[in-house]
Amino acid sequence: ITAAADAWARGAAALPKPWQPQKPVLPVEGMRNVLITSALPYVNNVPHLGNIIGCVLSADTFARYCRLRNWNTLYVCGTDEYGTATETKAVEEGLTPQEICNKYNAIHADIYRWFDISFDYFGRTTTPYQTTIAQDIFQRLLARGFLLQDTVEQLRCEDCQRFLADRFVEGTCPFCSYEEARGDQCDKCGKLINAVELKNPQCKLCRAVPVVKPTQHLFLDLPKLEERLEPWLEQSWATGDWTANARYITRSWIRDGLKPRCITRDLKWGTPVPLDGFRDKVFYVWFDAPIGYLSITANYTDQWERWWKNPQQ
């Protein structure tokens, strides 16, 4: 308190001069370097106050605090644009998925500008860098034996000639008999659903009755990582600043044993899978989207690895 009163008495002239980072903002030797990202807002809607509060406001406040502290700060964000929800929105509006992304990315950017959110860069995930980095990570996983193939029973619409992603199927919930349940979740009882469990399923696009057929997919072999993950988590829990909720959820996953996780989908709109036998598929958005933080930084600066692969700073 005495130090604060003394600094206040000396006035603004005694404060350190504000740090003016170079452009683009890159890590600087000897400084505290802070990279801030907001959770990438999904592109298929118009942001409202809840999105602003839940997605970008806290990160913006922290970015402003860091700059006031004269820390070398980079704050990036962008729209998450691949996946089924974009395809569904495109069908609703009679546009292509790319046109939907272009339309709503511009709306998002305008709204955040109006709110004066202090991004150093606001990008998007539908870029060549996203494809390059996601496919590179995939190839590294493949080369190290962390992927496996398996057959999945999936609904296929013979009229549309396509396997149906979860959101392209509607039917009766097997738990509560709600007649408009989606292929991934029932909005009435809230339970998760495997699309093949739906009663009276219908293709959302043409209303035909789909059939169950086998299809090959790629899985991230998470059980192989368990042995290395557990000691890392113990160290991170001891030295990091995890919330009680994050610790509880992570512990429950480890306790129950990690399961292989499917990383491909029978869709057109997404990052292509660069492997023979799977080139008609794309990466599942939850494999692909987190890589958006890296690719958006790469679109900001070609020296993006100095932020993302630089643990010394």
TrEMBL record:
- Catalytic reaction equation(s): tRNA(Met) + L-methionine + ATP = L-methionyl-tRNA(Met) + AMP + diphosphate
Which terms does the UniProt entry file under GO BP? Answer: methionyl-tRNA aminoacylation
> Could you identify this protein by its name?
Methionine--tRNA ligase, cytoplasmic
Q: Which GO terms describe its molecular function?
A: ATP binding; methionine-tRNA ligase activity
Start and end residues of each Methionyl/Leucyl tRNA synthetase domain: 34-311
Do you know which PROSITE patterns this protein is assigned to? Answer: AA_TRNA_LIGASE_I
Family, per the entry?
Belongs to the class-I aminoacyl-tRNA synthetase family.
Q: What is the lineage of its organism?
A: Eukaryota, Metazoa, Chordata, Craniata, Vertebrata
Q: Which InterPro entries match?
A: aa-tRNA-synth_I_CS (IPR001412), Met-tRNA_ligase_1 (IPR023458), Met-tRNA_synth (IPR014758), Methionyl/Leucyl_tRNA_Synth (IPR015413), MetRS_core (IPR033911), MetRS_Zn (IPR029038), Rossmann-like_a/b/a_fold (IPR014729)
Q: Which SUPFAM superfamilies match?
A: Methionyl-tRNA synthetase (MetRS), Zn-domain, Nucleotidylyl transferase
Name of the encoding gene: mars
The record's keywords, sorted A to Z, are: Aminoacyl-tRNA synthetase, ATP-binding, Ligase, Nucleotide-binding, Protein biosynthesis
List cellular component terms (GO): aminoacyl-tRNA synthetase multienzyme complex; cytosol
